[in-house]
Amino acid sequence: MSKKLVGGIIGAVVVVAIFGLSAFFLRGRNSENENNNDNNGGNAQVENNTSKTDGKILVAYYSASGNTENVAKKIADNLGADTFEIVPQEIYTDEDLDWTADGSRVNREHEDESLRDIALVNTAPADWASYDTVLIGYPIWWGIAAWPVNNFVKENDFSGKTVIPFATSTSSGLGQSGELLEAMSNGGDWQTGMRFSSRPSDGDIKDFTDSI
To answer: Most C-beta atoms within 10 A of its C-beta, which of 57, 94, 115, 174?
Structure first.
């Protein structure tokens, strides 16, 4: 065998060896980078899925004209919360809600407290026990919470839950609506409530949810 042929074979072996070692170290470095990316992705996912409170959140609301529902859904979106609509078995019509008309349903119920025992379609979601924080929304009627909310509060056990009321109104303040609901409730750590205008800005709602 000639010296040139032997030299060529040896050179080829050296090149293959160097290429193999380079590929080995490159695979190791890529593997390390993939592991780091997986770890970073896991941390990001945990941060994105972590709610502003320590547990599962429910936004329960009664809405007569849609204003409270609008606020409730935006609050739920900001907090990553579930929603539960408080629905009377006998729905209030526009005529029922006309407080300027003598003898309208809301006027009769305002004048006679015994008429405020409003039966509900459902009193709570099936997984009620899983919620750690419950926000309760309602319109203000005559300076207090709209009374369809009362039986939702009375018929549920709020023990171990943080409870935050919020209300919508054209001009009335929150008043003692939150304290009166707390007085008729079964337990719960009731927080100071929040009053919104009938059509608050998204910024106002975000300021509220950021404070929770």
So the answer is: 57
Q: pTM (2 decimals)?
A: 0.74
What is the separation of C-alpha 127 from the centre of its chain, rounded to a whole number of angstroms? Answer: 15
In single-letter form, the type of residue at position 106 comes to: V
Distance CA 184, CA 151 (A): 9
**Cα 158 to Cα 108: distance, rounded to the nearest angstrom:** 30
Query: Which residue reads 């579930």 in tokens?
Result: 82
Task: Give the integer Cα–Cα distance in Å for 77 and 202.
Answer: 11
What's the chain's Rg over C-alpha atoms?
A: 31
The average confidence (pLDDT) of the chain is 82
Average pLDDT over residues 181-205: 96
Phi–psi pair at 120, nearest 5 degrees: -110, 150
Sequence-ordered list of residues with C-beta below 8 angstroms from that of 3, at least 6 positions apart, any chain: none
d(CA 17, CA 83): 65
Residue-level pLDDT at 55: 83
Residues 6+ apart with CB under 8 A from 197: 168, 169, 170, 204
